[in-house]
Amino acid sequence: MVAFIGAASRGPVGIPVAIRSIDEYRRRFGIPGRGCHIQAHLARFFEHGGTSAIFVRVSGSERRHRIFIPAPGDDLVLDAINPGPLECLRASIDYDGIADDDGRRFNLVVHRLMSRDRPIVEEQELYRGLSVDPQDPDYVAHALADSSLVSIFGLVPKQRPKVTLSPGIEVGASYLYADENWQEQPVLTDYDLIGSHIDGTGIFALDRLPILDLICLVPTDGEVGPVALFAADRYCHRRQAMLFVDPPLAWSTVTDVIRERRTGGFSSPNVMTYFPRPVSPPGAPADQAPSALGAIVGRMVAGEAEAGVWGGVEREAVVVRFRDRLSCQLDDHDSAALLRVGVNPLRECAGGHVQLEGMVTMGRSGGYDAQAVNIGLRRLSLFIIGSIVRSTRWAAFEKNGPAAWNEVAQQVAEFLCELHDAGALGSGSVRNSYYVICDRETNSGGHRDVVGYRNCEGNGDGSGEPGGVNFIVGFALRGQEFHTFRFAHDRLECHVRPGGWQPGVALAS
User: Fold this and answer.
1) 280: which strand partners?
2) Which of 46, 123, 403, 408 lies at 20 to 30 Å from 36 by C-alpha?
3) Are residues 11 and 109 in the same domain?
4) Is the pLDDT of residue 319 over 90?
5) Do 246 and 362 reside in the same domain of the chain?
6) In what order do the strands lie in the sheet with 76-80?
7) What does DSSP say about strands 271-272 and 242-244: parallel, antiparallel, or unpaired?
8) Phi, psi (deg, nearest 5) at residue 406
9) The CATH number of the domain where 347 resides is what?
């Protein structure tokens, strides 16, 4: 599952929305004639073979459009559900079909329009026989609680709103529009992109997804700041996902890249970037930094659809079509230098294509091993870890004892055996490609020299008390050494910690 997080012209905020084409994105989030970073990313993602993506819209402002509907005494005030100045709404009140002696009921129509310049109705909500009486089953506040367009702001007036009349319109529907003079365009900050774990905003909106593979952060200024990079990296570690980002705008030469990578201090096996950026075409908006990220990710996932989950393990390059030229040309020496610091070289090739070489993570500069440095190997490892985490969550709610230990060990072993038979693990015998340890020692502090130990809820001593189950899994990917991970389930989540392989422990298991 590929997720893009960034600003859009309009649409729901903080909700993961499945997008299957650029046209679907435009219908839900776009404005005719108005582009943005995320739209350009998604357009290239789908052009290069991507078939489905999750998009989370992030807004730098909570301000929403407000429609004031006149009523005797106080107005009926409607707030747009989605924030932003380009969320164009209108509303209308009529009494059609309402009895003449019923002074509390009214009909409400709410429209979501494509834009102010093109008032084409994209969504409509029609409410008949609403009431201003709180004791009535059709009370307006209760009815609008399920609306995807508007909500009640403040108190409902004691008398029903007046029929909507617009100057110059005597026959047919008349409408009240949201404020047309609001032009605010706030720039996203790192904190907007990351959001809140408690509120489920920003990147944490992805907690609603059971499976997550790739995350692309798309800031409004074209560059992910250090706060967002650090927080998103930690999130990816927790979700067994990878983060793909554009290079910093300050990288204009290979020397700039190497200097920053050697002094910046950031390295991670879960983050990938490239160099150089494309050059903006003539006439492009100055505030829209060009990017190759959407095209790269689209081509990668398309290749995996053709070759399988671990088909990218041996891939050393990704070729994408690109109309724009690159900001600088790299030779073989430049490419080798970039790869040493964990940056993938982007080089022009024949036929209007560019090639991403190396396929390395930003862990290359941090001393990580081959499994963590190679993007294909890292993603395969994360796929295996994530599958184990999800399939063994039941163990967090079982009695911590031999029965649960045996069930976990058998379930994980069967999964790894299937992976071996499918060619994902080492080419040797099944016995030499993986091991699983789930016993009294892993649940009472034993083997803590293998990996960092985390004791979860419950006694973990076989007493049968409810609590998390801890176990150790080791496996060898094709052509790689064993890698060990400790899984510690508690009631909230599963904590995964990597550790080095100890042959004695593996053989003893």
Assistant:
1) none
2) 123
3) no
4) no
5) yes
6) 66-69, 76-80, 150-153
7) parallel
8) -65, -40
9) 3.40.50.11780
In this structure, are 437 and 487 located in the same domain? yes
Which tops the pLDDT comparison, 181 or 7? 7
Could you tell me the residue range of the domain that residue 211 belongs to?
A: 2-60+187-373
**Structural domain total, the chain:** 3
Q: Are 298 and 2 in contact (CB under 8 A)?
A: no
Whether residue 337 is contained in a domain is answered as yes
Q: Are 222 and 246 in contact (CB under 8 A)?
A: yes
Torsion-angle region of residue 383: left (phi > 0), alpha (psi -120 to 50) or beta? alpha
Q: Is 353 helix (H, G, I), strand (E, B) or coil?
A: strand
Could you tell me the sign of the dihedral formed by the alpha carbons of 404, 407, 410, 411, in that order?
Answer: negative
Note whether 170 and 273 are same-domain residues: no
pLDDT score of 41: 92
Taking only the tens place, the pLDDT of each residue in 184-242 is 666 788 898 999 999 899 999 999 999 999 999 998 887 898 999 999 999 999 999 99
Prior bond of 290 cis (ω within 30°): no
Q: 318 and 282: one domain? A: yes
Q: Same domain for 215 and 350?
A: yes
One-character DSSP codes across 103-157: -SEEEEEEEEES-SSS--EEEEEEEEEEES-TTSTTBHHHHGGG-SSEEEESPPP
One domain for residues 312 and 344: yes
> Six-digit token pair at 333?
């020496």
Contacts with 2 (C-beta within 8 Å, 6 or more apart), sequence order: 45, 50, 52, 53, 54, 213, 214, 215, 216, 297, 301
- The CA distance from 465 to 461, in Å, is 9
In angstroms and rounded to an integer, the radius of gyration of the C-alpha atoms of the chain is 28
Please indicate, yes or no, whether residues 29 and 169 belong to a single structural domain of this protein: no
The residues, any chain, with a CB within 8 Å of residue 384's CB and separated by 6 or more, are 416, 419, 424, 475
Distance, C-alpha 415 to centroid of its chain:
27
Instruction: Indicate the DSSP class of residue 306.
Output: H
Residue 384 lies in a domain: no
- N-to-C CA span, the chain: 34
Query: Does any domain span residue 340?
Result: yes
378 within some domain: no
Count CB-CB contacts under 10 A for residue 238: 12
